[in-house]
Amino acid sequence: MVRREQDRHTFYAGKPQPSADSPGTFKTINPSTAEPVCTIHTSSPRAIDAAVQSAQSAFPSWSATPPVERARVLQRAVALLRQRNDELARVETLDTGKPFSETSAVDIVTGADVLEYFANLVAGGGLNGEAFRLRPSAMVYTTKEPLGVCAGIGAWNYPIQIALWKSAPCLAAGNCMVYKPSEYTPMHAQYLASIYREAGLPEGVFNVVYGAGEVGGQLTAHPAIAKVSFTGQVSTGKKVAGAAAGGMKYVTMELGGKSPVIVLPDADVDQAADGALLANFYSTGQVCTNGTRVFVPRHMKQNFEKAVLSKIQHVRAGDLFDAATNFGPLSSKPHYDKVVSYVRRGIEQDKATLLCGGVSQPSGLPSGLKNGYWIEPTVFTDCTDDMTIVKEEIFGPVMSILYYDAVDEAVRRANATELGLAAGVFGKDINECHRVISQLEAGITWINTWGESPAEMAVGGWKSSGVGVENGRRGLEAWVRNKSTLVEMGGEVPTVFSKL
Ligand code: NAD
């Protein structure tokens, strides 16, 4: 199954560009086995500059290409992504440690859907401006202009999906992109760059640089970058947004969360428990919108815990390419260490009640996987708002159950955080569900479901969880700037200075 992956080099001017000035190499690791998969050559400052220049050279022609023609190129890339779904899913599985059952059904599919959505949107007039008569002799028209060369900086949890969610509206709007994948999961980037080329994207429109925070910092600070679209931790996002502000650059910030799930008193216990499991263990809990604080009415305690314990038996760790596996390892050793330290802290310092799980490996793992970064799906119950595991983003398979007595109390406690990425409610009375949702301080919310994020739906965090949105019609607006033109047809300019 494991095929030798070619080394990765900075990709610009339409191809990988090996160079002697790379400051070094690093390896991506298969998190299920801890074995190396691919060698990456860090982009040097010169290579970063060359990638930006390549994008600058491509911009005049790409931005002048009619939207419908740009859309045709992007649609061809959509077809290639779908044709190669399983090959790309295999790469994502090796890089992230997510089961193939998940990457083959979701990661490439949701990326391709977004590319198709934005191609259709711009072909269908999504970039049209407006025109109105100001007075009989004058009118105003507006145009949506691309920004120029934009940077995309990705997190490691949804590598190709993030690359597509950023590049799709960026390129559809007529911009060019220099993209930096996470240093932990960079393999997809060359596949995507090659697919874009094969689809007919002119060279220089999509480029890739490799490396960790330093490379991201150089890219952000590059004077020719007009916008930075960033996905990652709140702490990094603050640095990136600060650096971008210094150059008065546009930003989109998709950051972390500590999202609440509120189970209402009339909720179906089974449905709510299913939702809580999905919100905590899908992708081994490494989803930004994870619903990690599960607020449950006190009277439901026994039934809810029973349902969780029963359903958690169906979380299956194992060989990532086995169709029955639906739970993978943590994505890297540093991340494993971080999640394990949070679980230990939950047990030892927070003194939370461990309902199930802990820091050991899931039982029954094949011997070839023993060196991987596995932990069990973990549930703490009877948690309180002041516990570290309840306050901080863990980004792993760790659920905290908190009991409440009154719905308004649950809402108040759910909102008592600086983060505001996602939130959800489960309940039978739909009016009450809407009432509660309207009070929750979060940019992405669900009622009686969790996690679905279709291309048509704009998503973005409130408070410290982000700035701006991705996807939906609003997602395209994030990649254009407005030009307003006032046309006077009366034949005279105002005569303020010509008459004394
Ligand atoms: P991270 O902040 O550590 O890294 C994200 C990216 O930023 C990486 O490519 C990294 O190399 C780069 N980077 C690091 N320092 C930088 C700097 N100074 N300047 C520029 N770039 C820099 O985040 P991560 O650990 O890769 O990702 C996990 C986080 O991402 C979680 O907090 C998760 O909630 C968040 N996330 C958010 C969304 C969303 O849509 N809101 C989606 C996925 C992940």
UniProtKB/TrEMBL annotation:
Domain of life: Eukaryota
Segments forming domain Aldehyde dehydrogenase: 21-484
Enzyme class: oxidoreductase
Catalytic activity: an aldehyde + NAD(+) + H2O = a carboxylate + NADH + 2 H(+)
Matching CDD domains: ALDH_F9_TMBADH
Keyword tags: Oxidoreductase
Biased composition (Basic and acidic residues): 1-10
Region Disordered: start-end pairs: 1-24
EC numbers for this chain: 1.2.1.3
Active-site residues, record numbering mapped to chain: 254
SUPFAM superfamilies in UniProt: ALDH-like
Keyword Oxidoreductase: yes
Protein name: aldehyde dehydrogenase (NAD(+))
Source organism per UniProt: Apiospora hydei
